[in-house]
Amino acid sequence: MDRKQWQELWPIVIFTVLYLSIAAALALSDQNWEFMYYIAIVVILSFVALLVHEYVQLTKSVLWALSIWGLLHMIGGMMPAPAGWPISGTKAVFYSLWIIPNYLKYDHIVHAFGFGLATWICWQGIRSLMDEPKPTLGVLMLCALGGLGLGALNEVVEFIAVLTIPDTNVGDYHNTGWDLIANLIGSVVAAVLIRSFGGQYYKKQHGMAPTDPLRNPKRTK
User: Fold this and answer.
1) Domain-by-domain residue ranges, the chain?
2) Burial status of residue 214 (CB atoms within 10 A of its CB: 0-12, 13-18, 19 or more)
3) For the chain (length 221 residues), average pLDDT per consecutive 10?
4) d(CA 41, CA 31)
5) How far is residue 50's CA from residue 191's CA, in Å, rounded to a whole number?
6) Which end of the chain has a smaller Cβ tally under 10 Å, C or N?
């Protein structure tokens, strides 16, 4: 990325560093080692996102959405649930909060949003390699499966937390199953949105036909 592109990222970087610093300070003061672990994972994934952006040129809206997803994760694990609101489990934080009792949790929304976003990132990565970036059914299936695969990797990360950190708020197998269903819903919704708007958005942003060789300068070198 050139200097101008890095300058465009600074608002996102500052916003992300700010909320992660606050979250880390709170987690340390509470000796919340589970969330110190998750903060470290978010930091690693932030650098991975920047590396992907270097090669794929993710849209700014996707980069902002990634940062907001991280913020939702911090809120979910560290912000106390409102008194008297229904929760699942013993820890009264937003991740345990029932929005619709016994049907929809805050956790489900964050999962659907996050891995729908992961599906969109897979689309932007695949699109950068295509001569004609059309969101066909086959391509969208690959994107959705990529998002679901990243969702499964997230469950591995949570399982490691269960094995290494006492008294986590990860939940049981039933919770994992609902997380995977939320991931599936998010990925399918993202695929439908890409199918509906992906091609038109690209043309609008770049002002050229998908087959124009200038579409992806790195491929012409």
Assistant:
1) 3-220
2) exposed
3) 78 96 94 92 94 91 96 94 89 92 94 97 91 87 96 93 85 88 97 83 50 41 40
4) 17
5) 23
6) C
